[in-house]
Design goal:
The structure is a homodimer of 381-residue chains.
Chain A (H helix, E strand, L loop, with lengths): L4 E2 L9 H7 L12 H15 L5 E5 L2 H10 L7 E6 L2 H12 L3 E6 L8 H10 L3 E7 L1 E2 L4 E2 L2 H8 L6 E5 L11 H4 L3 E5 L10 E6 L1 H9 L9 H8 L10 H17 L1 H21 L3 E2 L9 E5 L6 H12 L1 E2 L1 E2 L8 E5 L6 H17 L9 H10 L3
Parallel strand pairs in A: 1-13, 3-4, 3-5, 5-8, 8-9
Antiparallel strand pairs in A: 2-10, 6-7, 9-10, 11-12, 12-15, 14-15
Chain lengths: 381, 381
Amino acid sequence: MKKQYLLAPGPTPVPPEVLLAMSAPMIHHRSPDFIPVIQKVRTGLKWLFQTSQEVLTVAGSGTAGMEASISNFMSPGDKIIAVNGGKFGERWLKIAKAFGVNAIEVPVTWGDSVDVAKVEDLLKKDPSIKGVYVQASETSTGVWHDIKSLAQITSRLSGTILVVDAITALGVVDIPMDAWGIDVLITGSQKALMLPPGLAFIAVSEKAWTLNQSAKCARFYLDLKREKDNILKDSNAWTPAVSLWIGLGKALEMMQKEGLENIFARHRMLAQATREGIKGFGLSIFARQSPSDALTAVVAPEGFDGELIYKNLRNQYGITAAGGQDQLKGKVFRISHMGYADVFDIITAISGVEMVLARMGYKGAPLGSGVARAQAVMIGQ
Amino acid sequence: MKKQYLLAPGPTPVPPEVLLAMSAPMIHHRSPDFIPVIQKVRTGLKWLFQTSQEVLTVAGSGTAGMEASISNFMSPGDKIIAVNGGKFGERWLKIAKAFGVNAIEVPVTWGDSVDVAKVEDLLKKDPSIKGVYVQASETSTGVWHDIKSLAQITSRLSGTILVVDAITALGVVDIPMDAWGIDVLITGSQKALMLPPGLAFIAVSEKAWTLNQSAKCARFYLDLKREKDNILKDSNAWTPAVSLWIGLGKALEMMQKEGLENIFARHRMLAQATREGIKGFGLSIFARQSPSDALTAVVAPEGFDGELIYKNLRNQYGITAAGGQDQLKGKVFRISHMGYADVFDIITAISGVEMVLARMGYKGAPLGSGVARAQAVMIGQ
């Protein structure tokens, strides 16, 4: 018997109530049985996205949402800015290339947050730029980009949209779409929404819908206008992933019961406790300036392999965190504190890291020193 | 208390064993926990598709599979033949248009099966046609198209692929991909595979992979080459719909236990019993020549509204069948006998139709006459 703990930045644990809801017998998506599910989801997603716009749901991974945010608003040859500070920032460039869109890269050193002035400068120099594409929380580095400031810039421009990949951000941190003036806001099911992977969500501002009218990139399955026309009639363009929708209704109900402010405060506290716990054990956080409250990328101490720490957490203690991706492989490991997470998940994570590293010969700090710091944050000391 | 019966042509009922498997705690798709799931699914899908090729799985509806079958093998301006004998045949034309592909329509009167000689003739006249796109089972009409004969034609042509939408056909009827020489074979999760909607499957022949190398249609999320490169390493290009994959492993296990021949024989018998039962009650089948074994489209008797029959089945007896789509709305209703279905589902369907129509004033045949004919087929009389 070994209990399993899922502490990876997606998929995150699914609450038993949601698993149970998804285990009900199948219903037909075009029958009256599904209407209450759609209505509950429509209302709940608008609440979560803090928008008066419809939030569109497609069967697909987060990448489907990212692709839709390019193909539905741009034409081949159009210019966009792509903020690239990690594996998911890179993906904007790859998608743009696949669709013939001309992406101007704003490279950001992995671990740093984007320099907003650089983006502003580019937009000033070239008013033909139609979109700024950025992650809110870059999952590969655990960095938070300053979305609010970017939105202040783009919302003054009539022909430039701000597209935010909030896949590990929405439902973690306050990102009020309408209040900030975000144009396209994307998330996925398997992060703060506490669902299995398989759904992507995209909300679209009026400004972006205007761009949509002239956007010529090829699209069919991910045609958001078609989804909007359907959801307004409590319907879907294509067969929806019924069981995930039902689970989504339940997860939104749980989130609404907790309340947005409480959700954000919980994530802030858990993230803070994790970072302090990690530092209390003598380790450092990879995000130098602006760490995300969704996950923490921890720098493997000198002489210790991050991949081995990840493996030992799994094999010795049943904890599935995440390793580093691409250039960070072996250099960091990542702990999620997003979604269905509470204080004891963080205690588990920190104490697990302590025991694993102690067994590997790490002498940087005594056992329990990280846990104690995390506990202090948790009780507000 | 009213028991519910799902007899629609997708989603179809999900077996309790599959629901249970999908209710397990979430696991991470890049951890070793998921490898056995991937391996089981790879083996099972090859078996089901009767192919030595990898079967590629994407998070999306069946339409995602249809789009991928165009965007991965064609370039803008390329010519294809689209067999259009129903709502799903029409979809080829719409997808081709969205990607700038030049689709030559072979129109088929709804309810009829494609005239294979017409397709052969077009291919002879224009060797530049790169693909023939067709449904095996057209879900809107309940018609079966002669895939084997089409494959005999296209397999002689080195530059023309046969793309078969087998969304309501695979796992119902014998469609041996490799033996017949089908180039792209598509299905979805919510039909004979007995899963919730949310997965599309695409298998690709060597001939089609050759076309893929020069295909210039825009694609990223549905890039099949990327999925192939990943699945060969027991991985996925993007985050897979983990719970659906786990359910898929269980469903494939159940199907393998039953065996392909038994699965096909069961569907043949249930389809035959349904058709005979319907005729035994004095009604007629919409598919005039070549009915599909996946579902039966029943013509509403003169003076009776098909939509009302559908609604009464639901409201009076808890049976969710399906109405007619587009031009068939009100004219037919559709009963599925696909996936997790046995003789008593058919008895339920036929007796439900009898009771509903009798209550609506239908006098074409006595109550029980359809059931008796269906029973006779079931016991081989």
